[in-house]
Design goal:
With 219 residues, the protein is mostly helical. It contains eight helices and five strands. Helix content is 44%, strand content 11%.
């Protein structure tokens, strides 16, 4: 449940599903009237959705009342990161409150992979509602291989996981511990994560139903 202050009135809206999507869609509708609009929230999901979806004629800011309090100008952020805006929701959705994050591979690293190294072609698949699950799986696996620094000739997470395992074992003494979680995920695990990421994007872009786990996830 959240509130909109209009003149001296307060309008209350209650979300039937994802509250963040309702907040963003309402903010975009009101900001489309060419009047300045302020969203007050501490949710990074909302900031990412606003940066991705705000258009040129909107004057929209987000106030984050944490310590310290931050005021974000959405259009300034868009100008600073340029075309990376297109893929920001894909990067963020790969580790949010719906999809588990990749262990030791933070969003900052994924962002730099797209923004500085321009490794973004495979992410276009996620923004296309017509993409098949096979296309989503291939694109997601390719991006994860790039994220883990796999050589270009390596096209399978399973194969690179084995290579990474052998490297890690060769550097580990008998008395030290080894974290399997630090290895790249398997192709099967990545497939489930990629499908959840796709569903999250479709839902938050208003193109799909509320996210649910694909068959086999969490079972």
């Amino acid at each position: 449940m959240w509130y909109i202050r209009c003149s001296q009135l307060i309008v209350v809206k209650q979300a039937d599903a994802d509250a963040d999507s309702l907040i963003v869609s309402t903010a975009l509708a009101l900001a489309g009237s060419s009047k300045p609009f302020l969203v007050v929230s501490t949710e990074i999901d909302i900031l990412v959705m606003l940066v991705t979806q705000v258009v040129l004629n909107m004057d929209l800011h987000m106030l984050c009342p944490k310590n310290p309090t931050m005021l974000y100008n959405i259009r300034d952020i868009q100008d600073n990161i340029g075309d990376t805006c297109t893929y920001l929701m894909v990067i963020h959705a790969s580790g949010c409150d719906i999809v588990s994050a990749v262990y030791r591979q933070g969003k900052h690293k994924a962002f730099n992979l797209v923004h500085k190294k321009h490794e973004s072609d495979m992410l276009k698949i996620f923004n296309n509602p017509a993409s098949s699950h096979d296309e989503i799986q291939k694109a997601g696996e390719t991006f994860l291989l790039k994220l883990y620094g796999a050589p270009n000739h390596c096209t399978s997470l399973d194969a690179y996981r084995y290579i990474a395992y052998k490297k890690a074992i060769s550097r580990t003494s008998l008395s030290s511990s080894f974290q399997l979680a630090a290895l790249p995920p398997t192709s099967a695990a990545a497939k489930q994560s990629n499908i959840l990421t796709e569903r999250t994007l479709l839902f938050r872009n208003g193109l799909g139903i509320a996210c649910s786990q694909p068959n086999g996830v969490g079972s």
